[in-house]
Amino acid sequence: MYKYVIRRLLLSVPVLLLSSLIVFGLMRVMPGDALTALMGESGNVSAKDLQKLRMDLGLDRPYYQQYGIWLWQMVSLNPGYSIFTNEPIPVALKKAIPVTLELAMLAIILGLTIAIPVGVLSATRQDTASDYVGRVVAVSGLSIPDFWLGTLVITFSAIWFHWIPPIGYVSLWDQPWKNLQQVLLPAAILGFRLSAATMRMTRSTVLEVLREDYVRTAWAKGLAGKVVVYKHALKNALIPVVTIVGGQLGVLLAGTVVVETIFALPGMGRLTVEAILYRDYPIVQTNVMLIAATLVTLNLVVDLTYAWLDPRIRYS
Fold this sequence. Notes:
- The protein has 316 residues and is mostly helical.
- The chain is built from 13 helices and no strands.
- Helix content is 78%, strand content 0%.
- The longest helix is centred in the middle third of the chain and has 36 residues, at 89-124.
- The chain is globular, with a radius of gyration of 24 Å.
- The N and C termini lie close together (7 Å).
- The mean pLDDT is 83.
């Protein structure tokens, strides 16, 4: 087990290096640069001031030097400052990460709360009315885009209930009730979409496991239906579900930009998109590397979870 973990950690190094090269290269080939955006925001900036600013930021150096400096900053856990706001990047991340993390955790909890029971119900009552309802809900979750559902929820909440989520994000620890009013709706929208894939996978795998010999034996021994399904079938059916949930958590940390924008939540997605618009290289590169490292870690955790779910799995 330890050798497997160490080997996976070593293999993650070239993956992260390749990710760093890709994001660094993409940011440099994009049209426009940070100084152009900064100049457009500041108004009249002379060519002399622009050149001085370019030298101060190190943007006049060759690309390989810029890449080396940035790589060293990332390794030494000191990613530098935002070009646009001059704010230390750790400070910006400290404000954005808790928002996205709270949103992602709530979405995962809500998604699993919907997906697992409905998936099991659909599998155990195959081709009945409840199965068809569950499948329609799953297909709806896969088909309806977040931006459309989020817009509808805000619009009809305002028209029917004369209520919209409070503006101006507050922390869960400062004002819990106001925070939940801001976060619960976007988390429910994300959770609904995430539950769709998990629901379908749960239904498929539980159906497959229910046809196994050991499950037939459990039925033949006269065990209660709940014991057969939840103790003998569900646990063995969860391995593909865990894979999907692990991937969904990574997607949530990187892909909540639409929901964060609609509900005005200052999370990681919104921070990254604003940094891309202003060509704020250090923030974009740091965020992408942070997401890449998170995905690599989540994949490792998911792989290790397999052995807990199925003791027959051995890592060598």
